[in-house]
């Protein structure tokens, strides 16, 4: 195995025979606290995947967190979601063959684009809302939708589509959830309020992302004090400041307003997002002029050139639920007492009724990826 030139490997890692028989396993692409990701090429097709190897000795006492993510990944098969291809469990390691997406993340796509318009932003939301609709139909909430977890798949014909990854905070929903978790910029007000929440926290996050797609900065922002940011989110006072929003269509603003409703009952569903004219009807996209958001994204977010650092598609796979424990947070207001404990089986349902869709081929075709017919995305 090590002698094969297309492995690009400086070592020959041990993998179970069932994996080695089907895949050529090569060099490490990414190395995290709990997992390493290696090159992985399917022998019979030449398709490239990523092999995620989780060190089980580092996860003792928290195995349920890994099991929860894998149980959800087993259920999901959608062209706008990074897929689990197959798995192999051994005494000391868990091996996951994952879809490898090489096109960078959402911000990479915008900041590297020669021309970026409302039509492109609409296509991106179409992809994201398609993934969310699919998950919500399975009663799965992602809980950490953000640009870093939206990867760009580049099709052979030059078109692109988004794939949602990182299910480390995902959960089946069979009642209200209370764990305060997520990424502050994108977290929904009902999570912060600790009044219980459900599927629509994903719509809020998608609304924040759509806002950023059109102006380059988030709707609620305070870099100095996280509590001030969370207060802004709780109030949900949305504005579209001039001049950044002067050339954005009314339809886009109406859609974002519907997605960022503090009242969960008034907030759009994924179906309503997909049915909105700004997503479904080209005539509501306004003019086709370029949006000047790349510079603002670079200013407001950490989008410096990555150089030789780990590619976005590998970083998303390298993360485990254990890495995300720091995303369980609590407000620092005086009336708040105590700390949120580490994730437990009660917070994350590791086993539940199987909502799995009908089986799909082991190697999904990139031609099946959902994308807007009027956009590269």
Number of strands: 9
* CATH topology call of the largest domain: Transferase(Phosphotransferase), domain 1
Helix/strand order:
HEEEHEEHHEEEEHHHHHHHH
Q: What is the CATH class designation of the largest domain?
A: Mainly Alpha
| Poorly predicted tracts of residues | 1-10, 332-374
Q: How many domain units? A: 2
Mean pLDDT figure: 81
**Helix count, DSSP H or I runs of 4 or more residues:** 12
Strand order of the largest sheet: 1-2-3-5-4
Q: Strand count, sense and closure of the main sheet? A: 5 strands, antiparallel
Assign the CATH superfamily of the largest domain. Answer: Transferase(Phosphotransferase) domain 1
What separation lies between the terminal Cα atoms? 38 Å
Pfam families: Pkinase (PF00069)
Family: Belongs to the protein kinase superfamily. CAMK Ser/Thr protein kinase family. CaMK subfamily.
Keywords: ATP-binding, Kinase, Nucleotide-binding, Serine/threonine-protein kinase, Transferase
Binding site for ATP: 52
Description:
It is a single chain. With 377 residues, this protein is an alpha+beta fold. It folds into two domains: 5-99, Phosphorylase Kinase, domain 1 (2-Layer Sandwich), CATH 3.30.200; 106-368, Transferase(Phosphotransferase), domain 1, CATH 1.10.510.10. 28% of the residues lie in helices and 14% in strands. The protein has helices at 17-20, 63-75, 106-111, 118-137, 189-193, 201-215, 226-235, 250-259, 270-275, 277-280, 294-300, 312-318, and strands spanning 23-31, 35-42, 48-55, 84-89, 93-99, 140-141, 150-154, 160-164, 171-172. It has a five-stranded antiparallel sheet. Strands 6-9 form a two-stranded antiparallel ribbon. A hairpin with a 3-residue loop joins β1 and β2 (35-42). α4 (118-137) packs antiparallel against α6 (201-215) and α6 (201-215) packs antiparallel against α8. The protein starts with 16 loop residues before the first helix and ends in a 59-residue tail after the last helix.
């Amino acid at each position: 195995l090590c002698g094969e030139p297309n492995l690009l490997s400086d070592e020959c890692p041990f993998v179970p025979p069932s994996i080695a028989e089907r895949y050529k396993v090569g060099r490490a692409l990414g190395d995290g606290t709990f997992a390493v990701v290696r090159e992985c090429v399917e022998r019979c097709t030449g398709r490239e995947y990523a092999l995620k190897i989780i060190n089980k000795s580092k996860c003792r006492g928290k195995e349920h967190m890994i099991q929860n993510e894998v149980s959800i990944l087993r259920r999901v098969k959608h062209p706008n979601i990074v897929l689990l291809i197959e798995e192999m469990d051994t005494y000391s390691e868990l091996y996951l063959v994952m879809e490898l997406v090489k096109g960078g993340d959402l911000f990479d796509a915008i900041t590297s684009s020669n021309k970026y318009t409302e039509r492109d932003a609409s296509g991106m939301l179409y992809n994201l809302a398609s993934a969310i609709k699919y998950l919500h139909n399975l009663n799965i909430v992602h809980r950490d939708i953000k640009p870093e977890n939206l990867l760009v798949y580049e099709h052979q014909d030059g078109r692109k589509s988004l794939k949602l990854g990182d299910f480390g905070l995902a959960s089946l929903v069979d009642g209200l959830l209370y764990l305060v978790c997520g990424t502050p910029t994108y977290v929904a007000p009902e999570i912060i309020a600790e009044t219980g929440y459900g599927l629509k926290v994903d719509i809020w996050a998608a609304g924040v992302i759509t806002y950023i797609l059109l102006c380059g900065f988030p709707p609620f922002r305070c870099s100095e004090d996280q509590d001030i940011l969370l207060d802004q989110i709780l109030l949900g006072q949305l504005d579209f400041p001039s001049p950044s929003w002067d050339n954005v269509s009314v339809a886009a603003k109406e859609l974002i307003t519907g997605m960022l409703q503090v009242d969960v009952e008034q907030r759009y569903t994924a179906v309503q997002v997909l049915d909105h004219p700004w997503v479904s009807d080209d005539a509501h996209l306004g003019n086709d002029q370029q949006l000047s958001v790349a510079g603002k994204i670079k200013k407001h977010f950490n989008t410096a050139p990555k150089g030789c650092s780990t590619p976005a598609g590998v970083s998303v796979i390298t993360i485990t639920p254990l890495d995300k424990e720091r995303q369980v947070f609590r407000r620092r207001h005086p009336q708040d007492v105590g700390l949120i404990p580490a994730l437990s089986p009660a917070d994350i349902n590791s086993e539940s009724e199987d909502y799995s869709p009908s089986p799909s081929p082991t190697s999904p075709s990139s031609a099946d990826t959902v994308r807007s017919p009027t956009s590269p995305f």
